[in-house]
Amino acid sequence: MGLSIITGILVDFIENEPQGYQAYEVIFENINAILVKNNVAPYQEPKVMETSPLQFGGFPYSFLHHLRRFAAHTWENEDNENWKPTVFSVEDEPSADAILEDHYSYMSSHLLTHSDVEGFYIPVALPEVLFDNDEFPVPGAMIGSSYDLLSELKSLTTHLGIEIDEDNKLTNVDELNTIISNEGDFWIEILVCVTLIDAAKFSIENKTAILFN
Questions:
Q1: What are the phi and psi torsion angles at 207 (to 5°)?
Q2: Which of 196, 104, 212 is nearest to 150 (CA)?
Q3: 85-118 per-position pLDDT tens digit
Q4: Are 194 and 56 in contact (CB under 8 A)?
Q5: pTM passes above 0.85
Q6: How far apart are CA 123 and CA 120, in angstroms?
Q7: 85 within 8 A of 159, measured Cβ to Cβ
Q8: What is the DSSP string of 46-82?
Q9: Domain range list for the chain
Q10: In whole angstroms, what is the distance from residue 113 CA to residue 129 CA?
């Protein structure tokens, strides 16, 4: 069992799981209550779309930590124009990386400040990552913005060799698929990054929340 990333969840549940639909309606009501509490206008998760919901799934939860570690090292060296990433040792545990731990402590990144196994990114500009409370619980406790997530991911693309156009569409998919299938340098980071870029792009274009599950 691995991490599933879904966006357009209500549409899927209306059609296939009515009980799940009712449960998620309550969650989205709680999300909106938290938005209002933080002076952010509520949003409406679509119940009808012209396109099918988007779902990715199957990679281990730990893969997120590989991308997060890469992000932390990239941001740590953002003022060093000569910096180039080097492949991490397979013996190193990504989540125990000291630089990543520092960046976790800032609690400012939407990529880093999020549950590994559940939770939401919503297609709303947020002042910061928002947290639930006892009155309005939300799975994963932390609510991120699809806009901020996409912006952070785009800051990593150059160093990962990911090419995207002005519409945030991947332009070197075949090359990236070859690296992933051959388990080349940073293949895990590339896999997770392009998956999240696609999810964030879909979320923003269709005004749907991203769900980690």
A1: 60, 40
A2: 196
A3: 999 998 899 999 999 999 999 999 999 999 999 9
A4: no
A5: yes
A6: 10
A7: yes
A8: -S--SSPPEEEEEE-TTHHHHHHHHHHHHHHTTT-TT
A9: 3-212
A10: 7
